[in-house]
Amino acid sequence: MSAQAQSDVLSISDHYFESGIRLYQAGHLPEAQWAFEQALLLDPQTLDAHNNLGSIKAQLGDPKGALEDFRAELALDPNHPNSSRIFHNIGNSLLALGQPEEAIIAFEAALKRDPNLIESHISLAGALHQLGLDHQAQIQLELALKLDPENPRANHDLAVLERAHFPQKALQRLHLALSVRPHWSEAHNSLALTLIQLEQWDLALAEFRVALLWDPEAKTIQKNLGRLLELLKEDRVIYC
After folding, report:
1. How many domains does the structure of the chain reveal?
2. What percent of the chain is helix, strand and coil (3-state, nearest 5)?
């Protein structure tokens, strides 16, 4: 291929890449995916196209495809300045594929490159929790909270781990998480479960209902609310 022809190909690749960015920012994910794929067909060395494709595939529920793109990006440049973030994305993809052991390796690689990557501490904790390693998970969440004491996800996940033995402490963490993200149905559900542990039935009912207000289709929350209502019915306690 002549130098001019090669330049033309790269120019067209750049055009597709820029179109992909605009489509992605507009929320048109399938169309953005197609544009980035065209950019890579013309120029397979386009690192950011792999990254953007991986992010899109993850959002569209294709963790296997996302994993392939994130790994391809890393293979093109193992010393990428954002390699910590790439390893983090690889870990999340592996976690979504039900491979927590492999995900742990990826998250640890991310944290080796950037010990202050809060998201990797939190995701690593999630992988450890899946394997029943709750003490190690707690350590990672505490590290995340040292970096960001008000981080809602870290406070929520640590509260879930603490709930069985320290419900009052868990309650405080969940209130803090909800002060940052008040419409977070998962946290309202966790707060309700903690209130049940403290035998505060009426407050628990209210929290389940708030959780369903923000996520009406959440099956787990519906099930939890139904179970509590059944228990209260058996005790002949009526709540409106």
Report:
1. 1
2. 80, 0, 20
Extract the tokens encoding 131. Answer: 């394997």
**Number of other residues whose CB lies within 10 A of the CB of residue 137:** 24
pLDDT tens-digit readout, 146-197: 999 999 999 999 999 999 999 999 999 999 999 999 999 999 999 999 999 9
In a domain, 74, yes or no: no
111 burial type by CB count under 10 A (0-12 exposed, 13-18 middle, 19+ buried):
buried
Residue 220 lies in a domain: yes
What's the distance, Cα to Cα, between the start and end of the chain in Å?
76
DSSP H or E run through 42: helix 29-42
CATH of residue 236's domain is 1.25.40.10
Which of 212, 214, 217 lies closest to 228, judged by CA? Answer: 212
**Stated pTM of the model:** 0.86
Domain annotation covers residue 10: no
Whether 77 is in a domain gets the answer no
What is the per-residue pLDDT across 61-95, written as a single tens digit (0 to 9) for each?
Answer: 999 999 999 999 999 888 888 899 999 999 999 99
